Amino acid sequence: MNIKILKNRSDIGAGTRGSDLGIDAMEIAAIVKGNHYFNEFPSEDISTHNESIYDKDHNSFAKRIGHVAEQCMRVSNAIAKNLKADYFPILLSGDHSSALGTISGIKNAFQDKTLGVFWIDAHADIHTPFTSPSGNIHGMPLAAALGLDNTHLQVNEPIAETKDYWENMKNIGINGPKLRPEHLLYFGVRDTEEAENKTIEKLAIKNYKVEEVRFRGLKNCVAEALEKLSDCDIIYISFDVDSMDKDLVSDGTGTPVSKGFDQDEINQILEQIVASKKVVCLEVVEVNPLLDTGGNKMAEVAFEILNKVTEKIKRNL
Fold first, then answer.
1. Residue of 54, 95, 45, 38 lying closest to 74 (CA atoms)
2. pLDDT at residue 235 in the model
3. Contact 252, 291 (CB under 8 A)
4. Over the stretch 272-308, which tens digit does the pLDDT of each residue have?
5. How large is the greatest C-alpha to C-alpha distance in the chain, in angstroms?
6. Rounded distance, CA 56 to CA 75, Å?
7. Given phi > 0 = left and psi -120 to 50 = alpha, else beta, which region is 96?
8. How far are the Cα atoms of 233, 235, 284, 317 from residue 279, in angstroms, in the given order?
């Protein structure tokens, strides 16, 4: 396999504009460092619907869901195409709704393989249009990938159009769920709502909280997590930069949260997962330079992490 960089400059699933500029901010960070990373690998730009933020939208419990669904389909097609062409896709995305497309594309390419997911994030992203307090779809990709509605926790009454689009989203790539709850592992999730907490508890999804990782030892926790996914043939890593501590790194992301991982911890987590040699795709999301009070700090840190883990990926290919 060879590495290919896929660039998905879409931010329509988020509640705050600006993560569509995150890829460019990371490229600028590389240039400033004199690093030729973005010239080293072939790349592909995925078309976006960013102009849809100006459209009138009646889907208040799943904002811009029609265009987000189409964007996830585009991501799914790009991921599946490149995996089938024997590339290792490193996907750089704006908002985290893209992960539904990524997971769906991986399952389309490897329909006979069992997928495991490492979700490194401050947020659980397991809401649905029936439960979401914001209607922002970057908080829903895992629910769609798992085929959930969570109507037993319903607080919203989406219109028929929203429900139809949601059904479509649950069936992107292949029909039905893309993974099982026991094959989803959280690292660093610490900012959740009641509906998400109840869903996580009901599905018994393991969350390796920051304090647990530090108390028990990072290597021990990642090794245990990999053992939990021992019956998975392939692994996808989704790295949201808000998994890092905003007070240690930067506010340069749409929903920054304190008490997260530091840069070195993220490096160690990613490298240990990649060392399993099961990883087939890595995604980095939610860098938002418009919100960065430290200049371009978040993009700089995200690029340093990306550059370091890519070296590990290259050695494993």
1. 45
2. 98
3. yes
4. 999 999 999 999 999 999 999 999 999 999 999 999 9
5. 53
6. 24
7. alpha
8. 9, 4, 14, 10
DSSP code per residue over 75-121:
HHHHHHHHHHTTEEEEEEESSTTHHHHHHHHHHHHTTTS-EEEEEES
> What is the C-alpha separation between 117 and 288, in angstroms, rounded?
24
CA dist 225 and 206 (Å) reads 9
Could you read off the pLDDT of 136-172 as tens digits, one per residue? Answer: 999 999 999 999 999 999 999 999 999 999 999 999 9
Q: What is the pTM of this model?
A: 0.98
Q: Which residues of the chain have pLDDT under 50?
A: none
Where do runs of H (alpha helix) occur along the chain? Answer: 22-32, 37-40, 65-84, 98-109, 141-146, 160-170, 194-203, 210-216, 218-228, 263-274, 297-316
Instruction: Give the count of domains, the chain.
Output: 1
CA gap 87, 187 in Å, rounded: 26
CATH number at residue 78: 3.40.800.10
| One-letter identity of residue 207 | N
Instruction: Show the domain range for 59.
Output: 2-316
